[in-house]
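Input chain follows. Return structure tokens only.
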Amino acid sequence: MATTNLTVESFGKTIAGNDIVFVDFWAAWCGPCRMFAPVFEAASQKYPDIVFGKVDTEVEQQLAAAANITSIPTLMAFRDQILVFSQPGALGGAQFEQLITAVKGLDMDEVRESLDAQDAAATA
């Protein structure tokens, strides 16, 4: 599967409608973004069971602001509609492969329990 361009209108639906979604926040003028683009595209071809979305921060400024993007490229990973990874900076191919493997291997019951515990502690 090729990468998908995400917009304000499609972002939420994409996250809600897929098990795993990686999102690359980028801009055309950004050198590290251009370096990471082929790595991201190659992964999208290798893992057709995962959605790989791209957000052009120049075009989708409202979406970038809502996602609190302050540095690009920023990579986010969602699993079962939960943000499980968010980090600025371009990854190399091996690093991105490790991240994909880690996200696929997450025990989402443990993740949800941990989030519930954090919520309980915050409201106590």
